[in-house]
Write a structure and sequence with these properties.
Order of helices and strands: EEEEEEE
Oligomer: single chain
Number of helices: 0
Mean pLDDT: 82
Structural class: mainly beta
Helix content: under 10%
Number of strands: 7
Length: 96
């Protein structure tokens, strides 16, 4: 089964959920030359992915954004996110 989320590629393979890295906006900084590998989640596990951006142009002020995505696999309650994640990817980069 494959699901195309608006920011992630989610695929079920052999009883695991493969979570691809989030799409980065086209005109954002920092440029990311490499993409992290997909994360594999077993039922009951959850994953936190953080990524940051800087936006703007030559004539306007810069805008900054930090996005945190929490993805769980299986029939989990919302309380699953109150504990530490099974996997974490810190995709934050320098914004200067």
């Amino acid at each position: 089964m494959s699901i195309q989320h608006n920011r992630f590629d989610l695929r079920e393979v052999d009883g695991l959920l493969l979570v691809g890295p989030p799409e980065t906006p086209l005109f954002s900084v920092p440029r990311r030359r490499s993409r992290p590998p997909k994360v594999r989640l077993a039922p009951g596990e959850w994953h936190r992915w953080q990524i940051n951006y800087r936006f703007g142009d030559q004539n306007g002020p810069w805008g900054y954004r930090l996005e945190t995505f929490n993805v769980s696999y299986g029939p989990n309650s919302p309380e699953v996110f109150l504990g530490p994640p099974t996997r974490t990817v810190d995709g934050r980069g320098p914004l200067c």
